[in-house]
Amino acid sequence: MLPYLSFLSFLLVFFIATFASPIAKNAKIIGRDTDLQFSYDFIIVGGGTSGLTVADRLTEDPETSVLVVEYGYLYADATNIEVPGLLNATPYEFQITSTPQHGLDNSTFAVPAAAAVGGASAINGMFFDRGSAPDYDAWVALGNPGWGWDDLLPYFKKSENFTPANDALAKEFMITSDDKAHGFGGPVQSSYPVFQYDSIKNFIRAWHSLGIESPEDPSGGTATGVYYGSSSLDPKNESRSDSQTAHYNSVSSRPNYHFLTGSAVSKINFVRQNATGVEWINRETFGFGYVNADKEVILAAGAAHSPQVLQLSGVGPKSLLNRLEIPIVIDLPGVGQNFQDQPTLYPSYNFTSNIVPNADTLNSNATYADEQLQLYYSSHQGAYTICKSSGNVVAFNPLPQVTPNYTSIIALAASLSASSLYLPDIDPTIITGYEAQRNLILNLYNSTATAVVETGFTSHSEIPLTLSKPLSRGTISISNRDPLNPPLVDWGALTNPADVEVMVAAVKKQRELMATQAMQELGPIELSPGANITMDADIRAALRQQVQPTYAYLCSTCSMMKREFGGVVGPDLLVYGAEGLSVVDASIMPLIPSAHTSATVYAIAEKAADLIKARHGLL
Ligand SMILES: Cc1cc2nc3c(=O)[nH]c(=O)nc-3n(C[C@H](O)[C@H](O)[C@H](O)COP(=O)(O)OP(=O)(O)OC[C@H]3O[C@@H](n4cnc5c(N)ncnc54)[C@H](O)[C@@H]3O)c2cc1C
Ligand SMILES: *[C@@H]1O[C@H](CO)[C@@H](O)[C@H](O)[C@H]1NC(C)=O
Ligand SMILES: *[C@@H]1O[C@H](CO)[C@@H](O)[C@H](O)[C@H]1NC(C)=O
Ligand SMILES: *[C@@H]1O[C@H](CO)[C@@H](O)[C@H](O)[C@H]1NC(C)=O
Ligand SMILES: *[C@@H]1O[C@H](CO)[C@@H](O)[C@H](O)[C@H]1NC(C)=O
Ligand SMILES: *[C@@H]1O[C@H](CO)[C@@H](O)[C@H](O)[C@H]1NC(C)=O
Ligand SMILES: *[C@@H]1O[C@H](CO)[C@@H](O)[C@H](O)[C@H]1NC(C)=O
Ligand SMILES: *[C@@H]1O[C@H](CO)[C@@H](O)[C@H](O)[C@H]1NC(C)=O
Ligand SMILES: *[C@@H]1O[C@H](CO)[C@@H](O)[C@H](O)[C@H]1NC(C)=O
Q: From which residue to which does the signal peptide run (predicted)?
């Protein structure tokens, strides 16, 4: 090979020999070679939920070479990941604190962003659901043909290996599903924990008594009502199924698949607007590495970090790049804008006659906890099959089911001028895009086809109330040119007054729920916001004090929308104005679905892999 090397390649060999090799000794490179190649067909930035899915699909073809560069490390025998009830996410997260949240009395909050091979799928609550059909059809309306519910359903199915609840559990707890909605050959395991707490039945009865029904299967495009969602859980031994177990472990020996851990991608390299490779910094040695991509650089660093990498590389809002003296490669105002998540209030109760055991018993009774852990290890049964702090039962309510006053909330939202919600120097395309989104959202608020508020119930003393489809928007932006410096994360939670009114209505609805016979059997006494907080003004004040800006569903910071709408990628997932550069993670969702986001991320990644293969003639 040597005689054919050009001078440039020679320089590269020299460069890699000089700089990359020391890194190779310290970081894990998996594959036939012990060293990195000069170049790969594809470089994937981030080995998380989406990144490992795309890497698996692209390396199915032995002729296609792929390098994944991941900030975190492989976990092995990590009981705090694998055993659902022992989850401890903290060791596998970035340490980022948000900016003061103006809608939340200027409090700051920890940012849930995963830093591990497997990404957030390794540390999430394992709730494995999809949004309703109109959630995805709204993506089409924002300029994305091919991304509606009917288009995505085959990819939801492709990603999934579904196992219905066993007969005894299904009968006792009224868990229903419809095989037509599911996939049975995919890599991600989807099943129901073999254990549930009895007071779940009260919660379901309570909603039924208020006229809220249960769909046969929420995965079929109607994810409203009160229902069980499956978990990303392996029914063989009731352990977590994540993108490392589903998409990495069984394929990591492919010779065309290389993997670098403990490395923070710091920059995408460009020749003009053509993405030609990436640079990274090793987390331990601070050594610097560089490699070329022959076909495409694929961003999968998650919604907090994909916009960070783009901005560091000179792709982003001109004003930001100029201020930080970063040479502009592409002026793309939408990078880091349109940031969405699901703000959540955790009303808490003293259940004076709760059924024992319940989700709190693991904390309050060490004998019970020991017994259950033994049971998990000996026969994969019991309370530890349920993910810690999570569960399987939710109510997803359309706005007309939350409050009869929904039209006044819609009118309030419509009356606010979009530009008043942004700083004066905002690019006009961002406002245009927001207005288009708002029209779609308000149509959904005015229907029963998708949900606006979620209530989760685990039998625990807190019953989270989540705003599934907020109108407020936030931003992610770098504050300087240091790639190891975390980005500024500003959720902008509850900055739109209409979001506050939806939450006020949700608090009142939860009180209606707690007043039903079925919930009263558990003897709830409201501790927070507090039974004395009844006037709307007091509820609003309590919300600003107590709401968390996140349910850990960061998304939409590199939105797939028309460029005139402030979009960052088109329906082909290619970054506007660039060549050979795409985004495939949660940041591309233009509107957050009324659901937890992992199943949608897997579906996006499966579709992304097909799009990428197709454009490079690899299908
Ligand atoms: C604590 C928590 C609980 C959740 N609970 C649920 C739930 O119960 N149900 C559900 O459906 N969803 C849940 N989610 C959300 C869901 O898991 C995520 O939306 C989804 O997994 C995101 O996938 P992603 O590919 O976009 O990003 P990730 O899976 O986060 O992957 C991004 C990867 O990029 C890496 N990375 C970042 N920056 C760089 C860089 N500069 N260089 C190299 N690598 C980098 C990160 O280390 C990470 O591995 C939860 C999320 C969290 C964090
Ligand atoms: C939050 O901070 C802003 C300025 O940063 C200030 O104008 C506002 O009054 C503060 N809000 C509260 C509730 O303290
Ligand atoms: C469950 O099985 C998988 C392999 O199928 C294994 O990797 C994992 O360690 C097991 N987990 C537990 C908790 O038994
Ligand atoms: C962009 O770069 C790739 C290599 O990274 C190359 O194959 C391709 O031809 C380049 N495209 C243009 C238009 O220069
Ligand atoms: C819950 O109620 C019980 C019974 O009324 C009481 O003894 C206990 O102190 C209460 N706990 C809290 C945290 O309020
Ligand atoms: C704690 O759990 C054990 C085992 O399940 C049970 O026998 C005991 O009664 C429980 N103790 C209390 C105080 O509930
Ligand atoms: C609906 O709005 C009216 C007027 O603001 C108010 O008086 C009433 O209490 C509201 N009803 C509910 C259920 O929120
Ligand atoms: C809400 O829907 C009804 C029909 O169901 C329609 O008459 C009304 O105009 C809609 N309101 C808004 C604000 O879109
Ligand atoms: C509600 O009660 C709490 C605790 O007693 C008190 O701190 C708070 O000021 C009260 N709020 C209102 C609006 O009455």
A: 1-20
